[in-house]
Amino acid sequence: FLISHSLLHGRDSLTFKPELILFFSCSFHRIYHHHSLLTSSRPQYLKQLEDYLRRQLMFLDLMKEKNPDLRFQPFREVFEYFIEDFKIYKPLLASIKNAYEFNLQEKIRTLEPLKLKLITLREEYIQKILAIRCEEKHEVKKLNEDKLNLMKVIRKKNEEVISLEVARLRKSLTEEYVQYRNESDARKVLLADLNELRYQQDELSLLHPTEIWKEDQVKLKMALKMARRDLTQAQMEMTLLRANFGDVVPRKIFEQLEKNHNVLLEEMEMLKHFSEGLRKDYNTLHQQHRDTVKERDQLILEVQELRRSHTPRPNWSKCPEVVAGGMDRWQTLIRGKNSDQLVDVLLEEIGERWLRDQEVFPGLGQSDEVPVYLRHDSAVKNKNLSKKEVVDIIKDIWKTRGEEEECQENLPEYFLRYIKEHYEETSAMEWTYSIYETIRIFRCNEVMRQFYDILTRKVIKNPFPTLFPRKVVSWHREQKSMGISICSSLASLLLVYFPFDS
């Protein structure tokens, strides 16, 4: 209080008056007395608040809650209970509480970006740590694989080293065993020789015990020395002979080898002559082969040229499958016909199907290029005429045209006039179109082909179907009116129109 008073009123205002000192002493005494009462006897309400706070904190400890807001909540509740009970100090305590909470909220608000930044950094570092762990995991996995591979290599090397060492030891053991066997056998042989010499010495001592010592020792030494010298000289001569005549063959073996050599020379000469003959035959055959290859290449080129320039032969065996009537009718159609005629037969079959399927014919128009008997704009109905009907109509046309002596019309105009006279004029175009399409398709029939060629002016008008029938009819009338037999003068008429070439 003194410090706050000095700060508010200045250092000079702080004067130690007796009344002020008495007031402070009484106040301090009251505060001390109140504190002593509180410490000596605690109120029941304080105990309840402390018990409540302790229970809440223990509960949070049991829940293992680390959130500071939740741990601060019991203190807040205790403080609110405390404020509610002190009615007089409630506004002051509430303002203090609000000020502290406002300050805390401001601090929290200022720290919120840092918290978000910390969260972001935490996530980034967690991702980095996970990436590093993943990389380390891959590296560890790779290192483990390398370790396993190296362990396998080491194990394999160890096995190879062990196998080599075992093989070397086995080989060494085998050599040692062989050496041991040889030494053992030599030792046994030496022991046997020693025993034999001992037995011989014992036998000699038993047979001539006194004569052995009668020999002159000097003489024996001289004999031994001479024997050793002769042995050395013999060994030197043997070595010299081996050096000089080691590669010399005995005469018997030499003669046998020479004989075999001569036989082989004769066989080689025969094989040389045979090889020369084979070489000549080979050269001849090789030349023939080259000539044959050239001829073959030339023939291949000619065949390729022929294949390129010639049309392949049609496979007529496929036609009975599509021709109406099957194989029997096809055999009837192709009898005595060449390939060109067979093509016409197939075209007729295709055209016949087309005619049956065609209900109307499109009109060709009224232009001058269109024949007079086909000039029509709209579609024309198909009459579906048979070949026999068309042939009968054509024959009747030739017959009526031959009977008309003064007919000067060309065949297309006469054909149209004939159709209009013999059939209804409204359906004349239907008849002309149907007849025209029929004779256009069925070209194998001679009557239809001639009529079509003359009608389309592909050939000059034949005098036989026009002039000759007309003269025959007029001649027939004259002969009949005169009562002369037809057969007697028919030859003269034929000679007039068909004279023989001289």
From TrEMBL:
Pfam families: TSNAXIP1_N. One of its GO terms (cellular component) is cytoplasm. Transmembrane segments: none annotated. The keyword Coiled coil applies. Residues 50-156 form the Translin-associated factor X-interacting protein 1 N-terminal domain. It comes from the Eukaryota. Keywords: Coiled coil. PANTHER family: TRANSLIN-ASSOCIATED FACTOR X-INTERACTING PROTEIN 1. This is Translin-associated factor X-interacting protein 1 N-terminal domain-containing protein.
